[in-house]
Design a protein that fits this description.
With 160 residues, this protein is mainly beta. Strand 2 and strand 3 form a beta hairpin. The radius of gyration is 28 Å and the shape is elongated. It has one helix at 10-32; strands at residues 42-55, 67-70, 75-80, 85-90, 93-95, 100-102, 105-123, 126-129, 132-133, 139-144, 147-158.
């Protein structure tokens, strides 16, 4: 009876390397990775948000003292501190006769400037309010009182 001699080739080496890498990856993920949650410092931050083109039927929906809530997880993170400033919505158009821009009012809508104070954690990416990042000049989705709205953060001030 003749014994076959096993030949070790490059494919076998490749398979062994894949198995070793998989074991190393699993060991890193389950044993050596850091699973601690980072704690950040909390600050009281005053935010000013502009909410545009709100139907005038909802004119009395924004009030001082209303809670400010993150829509995605329904967590309150702030309170409206001042009576919201209301002004008529305007749009930009071009007048062909005069060759200039005009700014007519948008019928039946108002713009609001809403100031609220909330607790935020300062992370390496900015201020996080209830797992939502608010940045100046970027849009945000909030619930103010019982109104869900989209607005743009126009100013942030750290109070602490």
């Amino acid at each position: 009876m003749e014994r076959k001699k096993y030949k070790f080739n490059i494919i076998d080496l490749f398979i062994i390397l894949i198995i070793v890498c998989a074991i190393a990856l699993l060991a890193y993920v389950f044993i050596f990775s850091n699973k601690t949650v980072e704690k950040y410092d909390s600050f009281e931050v005053e935010c000013v948000v502009e909410v545009t083109r709100v139907n005038e039927l909802f004119r009395d929906k924004f009030n001082q003292g209303d809670p400010v809530i993150n829509i995605s997880n329904n967590r309150q993170f702030g309170t409206v501190t001042e009576t919201p400033e209301r002004k008529r919505s305007v749009t930009t158009a071009f007048d062909e006769n005069t060759g200039s821009e005009i700014y007519p009012e948008v019928e039946g809508t108002d713009d609001y400037i809403i100031t609220f104070v909330g607790t935020a954690e300062k992370t390496e990416w900015g201020y996080r309010f209830a797992d939502m990042y608010l940045n100046v000049a970027e849009p945000c989705m909030l619930q103010i009182g019982d109104m869900q709205c989209s607005g743009t953060c126009i100013k942030m001030t750290v109070l602490d």
